[in-house]
Amino acid sequence: MRAKGRCFELAAKHLLDDPSWTLVHGYAQLVAAFPFRMAHAWLEKGSRVYDPTRTEEPLMSLRRYRAKYRACAERRYRAREARKLLLTHEHFGPWDACIHDLIPLGLSLKQYRRALSTTLSVHSEKISCENLRDAQRHAQ
β-strand 36-45 against 102-104: which pairing, if any? Predict the structure, then answer.
């Protein structure tokens, strides 16, 4: 089974199979040479992380995971809430509009959002999924 590009799906399915985990939507730098953190999903339980897309090492300590992938959690969901959002949105996520595809490295999420907001207001554009990629390019 191919895992690459299916993080939201595989993490949500694992949570539904084992609700003792917490589903996390956030960002991670999964490719060292790529200068962006990407929207990503994984699971946490205490100080452990399970990432079904990291087939070579899916289970590791939270501290190591954060350091290795520059992972930054944006939203956390328990099984009941995830199941409800899955049924409401009819997809595996992300469910929160504030989670964008890419965040340039070197910018905090707060700095990125400020740059994105400024870019959009200067151009008098509405914030929408369609223009986020263009705004990300202008924000750099």
Answer: antiparallel
Beta strands, E only, the chain: 22-28, 36-45, 48-50, 59-61, 72-77, 102-104
User: Which distant-in-sequence residues (6+ apart) come within 8 Å of 34 by Cβ?
Assistant: none
Q: Which residue, among 60, 51, 56, has the nearest Cα to 14 in the 3D structure?
A: 51
Instruction: Tell me the one-letter amino acid at 83.
Output: R
The Cα–Cα gap between 88 and 52 comes to 24
Q: Is 64 helix (H, G, I), strand (E, B) or coil?
A: helix
Rounded distance between C-alpha atoms, residue 50 and residue 138, angstroms: 34
74-121 pLDDT, tens digit per residue, is 899 999 999 999 889 888 888 877 666 655 555 555 665 665 554 444
This model's pTM is above 0.85: no
Whether residue 15 has pLDDT greater than 90: yes
